[in-house]
Amino acid sequence: MKTLLTSTTLIASLMTTVVNANDDLDSVISAAKKEGAVYSVGMPDSWANWKGTWADLGEVYGLKHQDTDMSSAQEIAKFSAEKTNATADIGDVGFAFARVAVKKGVTQAYKPTTWDSIPDWAKDKDGHWALAYTGTISFISNNNLVKNPPTSWDDILKGDYRVTVGDVGIASQANNAVLAAAFALGGSEKNIKPAIKFFSKLAKQGRLSLNDPGLANLEKGEVEVAILWDFNALNYRDQIDRSRFTVSIPQDGSVISGYTTIINKYAQNPNAAKLAREYIFSDKGQINLAQGYARPIRDNVTLPAEIQAQLLPNEQYSNVHSVTDFKAWEKTARKLPRQWQENVLLHIQ
Length: 349
Known about the structure:
Elements: H1 7-21, H2 25-35, E1 37-41, H3 50-61, E2 64-68, H4 72-82, E3 90-94, H5 95-103, E4 107-108, E5 131-142, H6 153-158, E6 163-164, H7 172-184, H8 193-204, E7 208-209, H9 215-219, E8 225-229, H10 230-240, E9 245-248, E10 254-264, H11 270-280, H12 283-291, E11 295-296, H13 305-309, E12 320-322, H14 326-343
Helix pairs in contact: 2-11, 7-8
């Protein structure tokens, strides 16, 4: 069961940091309460337990909340298109999209009071973005449909089941699935040809499915194997029936990445958005994310034993790779939609 900090306890815990870290937090809290609401994009209840965070912000600060789910690219496009007519205050985008959002000039900076405990590699020096949690690309297999659940990309290639990967070229999760395959098959941020060749083979075999790899289709049995972030796969597994699904990290290689909040430069409720980020990086906010199967970015947060137990064993992560050449990956990701269309979707039967 999710436990909530009381208003007094939470504010007291934040204020212990505010004296040294951010003297303006009192003003942010006061202004956020006056705004009274925060509107998000790409932060639905079912993803990384955002539901718990929105519930806490409502109980502690009285903030109302509404989300419109969309991909990372769509979030940035929305901020850019609406400008001063903004209908969203904050979004959650994949790591590769963070710098894109800053370059497009649609973000505003805010450093939470726990800023110093966020690793340097996971944050923008000016405070425009910071990863709140990480995810690793995994496989989720329906045990009723797949006799031998895959634990490697090689297993998938030798299998006889259909594989669902999502909206490659649009969704960060799907793009990272391609990158994970590239890492495993000898490629890199600059060279995803091995992965394109891999998925092309699946398409030619009639084994690449265009089904949405979401909760509803998994529950209905319309997905045999899906490639998802581990936190989504574990969450879906436990929501439906733990015994029906097997989740594993591909042992021949995967990618670990993360998601970052971006606060809309034109937000109508900017202080509520800043307070949301503040809470997300607090101890309780980080535990909320872990309760949604995501791995918190702050390593000085102690997770309750029951939450730690629902995550995959650490040994499954022995062959995961982080993105090190961000410029190369940004360039590759921009070209990915056309490559996917011309080399993979062309062969869908």
